[in-house]
Amino acid sequence: MDTSQKTQSGINKDTKQEQLNLFRMNHDMESLSTNQGLRINDTDDSLKAGSRGPTLMEDFHFREKLTHFDHERIPERVVHARGFGAHGYFQVYESLADLSKAKFLQDPSVKTPVFVRFSTVVGSRGSADTVRDVRGFASKFYTEEGNYDLVANNIPVFFIQDGIKFPDIVHSIKPEPHNEIPQASSAHDTFWDFVVSTPELAHMIMWLMSDRAIPRSFRMMEGFGVNTFRMVNEQGQAHFVKFHWKPLLGVHSLVWDEAQKISGKDPDFHRGDLWNAIEDGEYPEYELGIQVLPEDQEFAFEFDILDATKFWPEELIPVRRVGKMTLNRNVDNFFAETEQVAFHPGNVVPGIDFTNDPLLQGRLFSYIDTQLIRLGGPNFHEIPVNRPVAQVHNNQRDGYHRMTIDQV
Ligand code: HEM
User: Fold this and answer.
1) pLDDT at residue 9, as a whole number
2) Is 290 helix (H, G, I), strand (E, B) or coil?
3) In a 10 Å sphere around its CB, with 0-12 CB exposed, 13-18 middle and 19+ buried, how is residue 178 labelled?
4) Residue closest by Cα to atom 17 of ligand 1
5) Is residue 79 a contact partner of residue 120, using CB atoms and an 8 Å limit?
């Protein structure tokens, strides 16, 4: 069979929206029904045996309504539980064929659909936006060759060098185990005990205690891939790369006193700011930047270029701005989209590859593993926001909540 017939072409910024349209449901002015589609005229009274009850077990509508309610919660993310997402698109400025064969990086006229989720790391899902913390900046590119996820933070370095310490740093910065205090804060003993016993963390702690950790807006934050990746071109030549997002509005922060007051007065400050900007047509824009090193320069510097506790100095290895992302559409439903989206640094496309960075290798294990429990089984790639626009054909079937009806 000619495999080119099976490849989707012509993917543009609307393709993902058209796919999502298949799942969107407008309930406005429709009559109420059960989940089995049975119309009902009353959702306020259960069926009683006599005028004073008790409620009858046979009232299937009562049972269904309560059962669904009882099961409405899924586990929040272990880290980055509080977040806010939006749709948009990405365009490369000029072909990057010299560096990468990734199709979405070749043609400046192609608008690749994206979904971005910004987050804090430590706080639970209901915590405040303006706490002192690292911010997540995760982007999913729905490319014609499959989903590519750039799972970034707003700080260019990381706490640790080896993924095996990730549970330890996270346990230390989460609330103390005996009383679950403090919420979304690094100002407590278990964290500082970890800091003093972990010398590689010194660089990151400077960033965490700086105004980078209290951004003014998601629209005014940089993003950094942190780990070193590789780009590979059609000839098989590889370059090491660091990824950057540069906000066109510039980088701006709050001051600590403002951040604390806003936490009390408007805990949704950042999500409100992003939502309103998009509703008002003030679409946030970020340029994609790359720092590039030929493979033979792996050992040319005094620092290890695969060490996530160091950045590559921009005066030595300048950032080249290669494209722009625009966020232009709010979600229709927070749970369906922002809560259920699943990013994974291992979602790459041909032309983008990994390195030996041990922190990155830890990440490559952890994301899918946690999503299997958070999203309840192995079919979460079929959830509308996670579905690639590229076609999926394989023999991985069955499992909880399978949506596709495989015919052969
Ligand atoms: C070994 C180190 C790391 C491990 C084991 C790890 C693990 C995790 C896990 C388990 C999640 C929750 C995922 C989910 O429930 O969907 C997560 C989320 C996230 N991580 Fe990491 N992480 C690590 C390092 C990093 C680094 C270095 C960055 C930044 C470059 C980063 C950025 C993010 C972001 C942005 C999210 C939130 C994604 C979203 O919005 O859903 N992580 N991480």
Assistant:
1) 59
2) strand
3) exposed
4) 79
5) no
Instruction: Decide if pLDDT at 40 tops 60.
Output: yes
Quote the tokens at residue 199.
């010398």
pLDDT(7) > 60: no
- pLDDT higher than threshold 60 for residue 4: no
Letter string b/e over residues 7-42, b meaning 16 or more CB atoms within 10 A of that residue's CB: eeeebbbebbeebbeeeeeeeeeeeeeeeeeeeeee
For the chain, percent of residues with pLDDT exceeding 70: 98
What end-to-end distance do the CA atoms of the chain give, in Å?
A: 16
Give residue 228 CA to ligand 1 midpoint distance, Å: 15
Active-site annotation holds for 356: no
Report CA(27)–ligand 1 centroid distance (Å): 35
Alpha helices in 324-394 (DSSP H): 358-374
- Name beta bridge partners: 323: 92, 288
Integer Cα distance of 308 and 227 in angstroms: 6
Q: Which residue has the tokens 């192995």?
A: 378
CA-based nearest residue to 332, from 115, 178, 118 = 115
Give the ligand 1 atom nearest the CA of 117.
40
The backbone torsions φ and ψ at residue 75, rounded to the nearest 5 degrees and listed phi first, read -60, 140
Residue 6 has pLDDT above 70, yes or no: no
pLDDT digits (tens, 9 = 90+) for 305-347: 999 999 999 999 999 999 999 999 999 999 999 999 999 999 9
Phi and psi torsions of 289, nearest 5°: -115, 150
- Could you tell me whether strands 238-247 and 229-232 are parallel, antiparallel, or unpaired per DSSP bridges? antiparallel
pTM listed for this prediction:
0.96
Asked if CATH classification 2.40.180.10 holds for the domain at 83-382, the reply, yes or no, is yes
Torsion sign over Cα 93, 252, 203, 227: negative
| SS3 of residue 109 by DSSP | coil
Query: Ligand 1 centre and the CA of 379: distance in Å?
Result: 20
Q: Hey, where are the domains in the chain?
A: 83-382
Pick the catalytic residue: 147, 153, 347, 379? 153
